[in-house]
Amino acid sequence: MSKTTSLTPIINQAIALYGGTFDPIHYGHLRPVEALSRLIGLKEVVWLPNNIPPHRPQPEASSQQRLEMVRLAIQPFRSFRVDTREIEKAAPSYSIETLSDFRKEIGNKQSLAFIIGQDSLLSINTWHKWEELLDVCHLLVCARPGYQTTFSSKEMQSWLEQHQTTQYEDIHRLPAGKVFLADTPLYNISATDIRARHKAGLNCHDLLPTAVEDYINQQQLYL
């Protein structure tokens, strides 16, 4: 029995989704997710650029430009791929709907996770149908600089403690239902700052991949 259990993470290796506007994608996205993937042993990370974000202003770059920047950024990573379902959607993309679609495609036994930042976790109770998220996936939470690690609400802190695991093996062993707070590196990088730097004529070599910056310059974005 112990031998069968030890093989579970390999047999049911988790697939993780990571969504955002990526306007533009930068090392603050890439490096924590890369570290998380190595830490947990994810089978695949699916990047989901969205067309119409429900909780923030419409991005400056077009949907196709942001999609191309994601493709350029993840090209060196064998286990990363991009999915276009949200970028092609003409309505706001809600995480629970996208995750439910993936769950239908992969079946009920495959481990499915959703990568978010600590800032998103602390506001997750404002999300559309947030109570249903753990029915379809795990939550993998990347650390974010400047954000607390606990909820101010006792009810939400109780929810977290009920579902939290400190064992990454649980993410592979179970198809959904757990919250894992990952000790990922902190990068104080924001797309807002990158856009401001470009408007000021400053380079961003240390903030995002060269291929992405070259594309930004070629497309004359954020001027």
From TrEMBL:
It comes from the Bacteria. It catalyses: nicotinate beta-D-ribonucleotide + ATP + H(+) = deamido-NAD(+) + diphosphate. Residues 17-197 form the Cytidyltransferase-like domain. GO terms for molecular function: ATP binding; nicotinate-nucleotide adenylyltransferase activity. Keywords: ATP-binding, NAD, Nucleotide-binding, Nucleotidyltransferase, Pyridine nucleotide biosynthesis, Transferase. The keyword Protein biosynthesis does not apply. GO terms for biological process: NAD+ biosynthetic process. Its EC number is 2.7.7.18. Pathway: Cofactor biosynthesis; NAD(+) biosynthesis; deamido-NAD(+) from nicotinate D-ribonucleotide: step 1/1. Gene3D superfamilies: HUPs (3.40.50.620). InterPro entries: Cyt_trans-like, NadD/NMNAT, Rossmann-like_a/b/a_fold. Belongs to the NadD family. HAMAP family: NaMN_adenylyltr. Catalyzes the reversible adenylation of nicotinate mononucleotide (NaMN) to nicotinic acid adenine dinucleotide (NaAD). This is Probable nicotinate-nucleotide adenylyltransferase. It comes from Proteus myxofaciens ATCC 19692.
